Amino acid sequence: MANRLRTIEAVRGTLRDEMARDDSIVVYGQDVGRNGGVFRATQGLIDEYPNRVYDSPVAEAGIIGLGVGLAAYGLKPVPEIEFAGFTYQAFHQIQQHVARLRSRTRGEFHCQMTIRAPFGGGIRALEHHSESFEAGYAHVPGLKVVVPSTPADTKGLLTASIRDPDPVIFLEPTRLYRSIREPVPEEDHVVPLGEADVVREGEDVTVVAWGAMRHRVLGLVDDVDASVEVIDPRTIAPLDTDAILDSVRKTGRCVVVHEAPRTAGMAAEITARINDRALLYLEAPVQRVTGYDVPYPLFARESAYEPDDDRIRAGIERALEF
Amino acid sequence: MPRETAVDFAIDRVQVLAPDGSVDEELDPDLPEDRLLGLYRTMKLSRRLDERAIALQRRGELGTYAPAIGQEAAQVGSAGALSESDWMVTSFRETPAYLTRGTPPHVLLWYAMGMEEGAAVPRETRNMPPSVPVGSQALHAAGLGWAQEIRDEDAATIGYFGDGATSEGDVYEALNLAGVYSSHAVFFCQNNQYAISVPREKQTKAETLAQKAISAGIEGVQVDGNDVLGTYAVTRDALESARGGDPVLVEALTYRRSLHTTADDPSVYRLEEEEAEWEARDPIERFEAYLRDRGALSDERIAEIEASIEDELAEEIERAKEGAQRIDPADMFEYVYATAPPELERQRADFGGESDGE
Ligand SMILES: Cc1ncc(C[n+]2csc(CCOP(=O)(O)OP(=O)(O)O)c2C)c(N)n1
After folding, report:
1. Range of B227's domain?
2. Ligand 1 atom closest to B168 (CA)
3. ipTM score of the complex?
4. What is the Cα A258 distance to its own chain's centre?
5. Ligand 1 within 6 A of CB of B251
6. pLDDT at B357
């Protein structure tokens, strides 16, 4: 059985299912209670679970730091940070404690926490509400980084994240919350972390993209005069390197697309992994189509900043024509 | 040793112009009538700008906008007490404060239109640009005030933030550091009763926000935030103290009468009765009644002021829209560093179509 759901409904439904399944889950964050979250991801949850859903004061370091305590005790915190751009306020807790608890206690403690945060650009939002900092989190050993791109994957990945014994930052592309509707399995649905999705098979060139960029890529590949394989890693860390390498060994060409700035972005890491293990299969240098190395602009300039159809197409052509 | 009280603290609350129109003679700042009318006009201008901005947002001409409706006395009174040599550090809901400091409406609209031009506040105005990350800017106010102390300047800095912001570590650090360094800072907390949907009582168990000053060893005071004479008088005194190296935290008790932002729906989390109660305590109406009482305002005079505000805003909105037509996205590369490094120059060339590859 499957209902046609939007991403935001998939988030909500998954939180509800998981809370019913496991009474150690605690959901909290700014405005997640009566207001149901600024995007309504937690709507109604406080009525069902008044003792497991809490509004938080405006204190991100506190929200994440408290989670370390909850997790150490044995509860499973699923906090929401109102926008990913405000995880910076909690970054010391994430880096120094959340991600290291297992390792620094030699496994005596661990931090089973899923930090949800709206993520990415494209919704004409205020300053600091459009960041794509996935590479920053991926640079934190011990932390898993997930970006779902479809309603069904949202359910499968969020379920897997909440059940994962290690901490996960779960980045929900705001632009996709309500833009797509698709069947989402009603029964238990788990998409294992670390497994990419080959969204579309092709022979000539591999395009790797996640979040909103995955959809932008899919929207234009039909017009490209080549057979394009599209891979959505879904989990940024740990990255499904093998899926990307398998594809590149077949196509010999690769383009990586992301909204985040280019320098030290995930495209650089993916390129390095391809160079490490599949260099001799390459017929062209891996092409990066990314945001520029500038602060994410306010919305009047955001469409100039993020990769658009023309830039993505040009990247694919460069890979094909090298 | 028996148990005894080690230290005792108290928090004062100040009101100059009461809702019934009575004025405390002793606390009355005794402003000349043209100053009073100036404050009144700015409050009205801000209210009307907020209304027009909400309407523009609804038509898709503006992005997310945070109106200050209901908070005009808190901001116009406090910013009105600043002198030109003082600095101002704002959060994201400070339209009335900016207007008081002479920032033209079109600049405020630019920020809401998603244009960096709206944050390009001229340095010589001694205003900082809006700051969206809640509470983060309180530290900047403490720092500016510290610079004033280092340079022994006879000036102060006001830093605005909300009740929600008092939960952020940055704000606690700002209060404490200001005390430690004798910063010339006045922290002006607008307790508008809500942080988006979360009411003030859920933000902290503390009875007042002003008392957070006490743990930092600085002075804290409450003021009726809907009383423009009160916010003026309290801020004037706080600035005087800060200029001498004694920072102050002011908590202005007010109410966000409108939306958190245009993306918000208050009916989900608060009752209409509560909104109606605060409507009756509206700061502009209170001040208007007082000015009428003094004979400084009449129906005609009010109509004139309103008409001049309509004209000003019509022009300013036009100017904002014209500015929006002229933006050049390529300038996003311009200000990242004093000198763009080679890789950024390469990206800029690529953006401009001057090179053939990313
Ligand atoms: C660090 C940070 N966390 C969260 C947000 C999202 N947010 C925007 S305004 C707001 C509430 C702020 O409340 P308050 O400080 O009382 O100011 P008000 O909005 O009432 O003026 C929140 C949580 C943010 N902008 N910055």
Report:
1. 12-327
2. 1
3. 0.96
4. 12
5. no
6. 66
